[in-house]
Design goal:
The chain is an alpha/beta fold. The protein is 19% helix and 31% strand. It is built from 8 helices and 22 strands. The chain has an 8-stranded mixed β-sheet, sandwiched between helices. Helix 5 links the parallel strand 13 and strand 14. The radius of gyration is 20 Å and the shape is globular. The N and C termini lie far apart (58 Å). The model has no long low-confidence stretch (mean pLDDT 94).
């Protein structure tokens, strides 16, 4: 394996060995505290433009599953490609063992043209990112006894939502339902970089889904509810999505937002969003519903949060992050609109908050008469 370096914008250098594609990439360096789920994380569009550090010390030991399709989209991945700019791990397991695996993590990265580095003190790297905040970085792979000269790249300047969204409208039938089944509710999924498990979670509960691009005006369609998906980057870049959402709110159909969807719904409700120091990324983020003992361990992946102080009086903040007190959800006091900052579809894990899809579809069915 070639020598590789991760260079941070503060001048820090972490050296290790290259695996995956022997190319160099630049991006925003972030960390994820999950123990498992690297296939889901790497294929999650919310990581677009980022160099992902896995804090769990051993990565790659269960390999990569097959790239098969079910219901018209990838069965085991959150999209049809890898979105990260690079991967950083402490120890890479070259030999994998899992009954479902068909290839190694390195082989998958090579095919997708994504570099990775192992042998890094990820604990020291994570502590630096927590102390100084998320930084830009360069993952450089040595070639012909020298490292390439490369500029830092700031993905936050780009509209990553537009880059990760679908390009056309598509429709999905509920799992196990015939095409003629008129009783199935129809949910518009606004794709801001949607994870496939949001689709699975709706289809498996008997809903049909109309997937639309981030800036598509769906308010003239025949639908029973709206799902606002997750997505990467700065929510202020999705002004078109917010303006369309304001029109959808006037129709009083149930609306459910996840992650980026929470931020966009909040902006439509008059609130502001702000950038977190180093974001929330992992499967172990505790949230609580104020005034209760209802606490969930949640999956999260975001670098921005909602400032609820400027919410219109008709809205209220709901879930709160127990680590830093940030807003983890909002809802309308009288109408069927709500959203959460965490991931109830949680692929991979945990599944504590999956019941929110059931609550949303109850609202949808009550409102549509189905």
């Amino acid at each position: 394996m070639s020598t590789a370096r991760l260079v941070l914008e503060d001048g820090s250098i972490f050296e290790g060995k290259s695996f995956g594609a022997e190319v160099s990439m630049a991006g925003e360096v972030v960390f994820n505290t999950a123990m498992t789920g690297y296939t889901e994380s790497l294929s999650d569009p919310s990581y677009a433009g980022q160099i992902l550090t896995m804090t769990w010390p051993l990565v790659g030991n269960y390999g990569v599953p097959p790239h098969t399709e079910k219901d018209g989209f990838s069965e085991f991945f959150e999209s049809n490609r890898i979105w990260v700019k690079g991967l950083v791990v402490s120890e890479y397991s070259e030999y994998y063992s899992h009954w479902h695996a068909v290839e190694s993590l390195s082989d998958w990265l090579k095919r997708e043209g994504i570099p990775a580095i192992s042998g890094v003190d990820t604990r020291a790297l994570t502590k630096r990112l927590r102390e100084k905040g998320t930084m830009l970085g360069k993952l450089l792979v040595e070639c012909e006894a020298k490292f390439p000269d490369m500029d830092f790249y700031d993905p936050g300047r780009e509209n990553l939502i537009a880059q990760c969204s679908c390009s056309e409208v598509s429709e999905f039938l509920p799992s196990g339902k015939p095409a003629a089944n008129a009783s199935a509710p129809r949910v518009v999924l606004v794709d801001c970089g949607a994870k496939n498990n949001i689709l699975r979670s709706l289809l498996n509960r008997g809903a049909g889904v109309i997937r639309v691009p981030w800036n598509y005006d769906y308010t003239g369609l025949d639908f029973d509810g709206v799902m606002l998906s997750n997505g990467p980057g700065d929510p202020s870049h999705a002004g078109e999505t917010v303006e369309i959402l304001k029109k959808a709110l006037e129709r009083n159909k149930p609306i459910f937002g996840i992650c980026m969807g929470n931020q966009l719904l909040a902006r439509a409700a008059g609130a502001e969003t702000f950038r977190l120091r180093y974001g929330h990324r992992g499967h172990n983020q505790p949230v609580i519903f104020p005034g209760t003992h209802q606490t969930w361990i949640t999956s999260q992946n975001h670098g921005y949060a909602v400032d609820p102080l400027r919410l219109h009086d008709a809205w209220e903040a709901t879930y709160v992050n127990l680590n830093d007190g940030t807003c983890e959800g909002i809802r309308h006091r009288t109408k069927p609109f709500f959203s959460v900052q965490f991931h109830p579809e949680a692929c991979g894990g945990p599944k504590d908050s999956g019941v929110l899809f059931d609550r949303f579809l109850e609202m949808v069915r009550d409102g549509s008469g189905t």
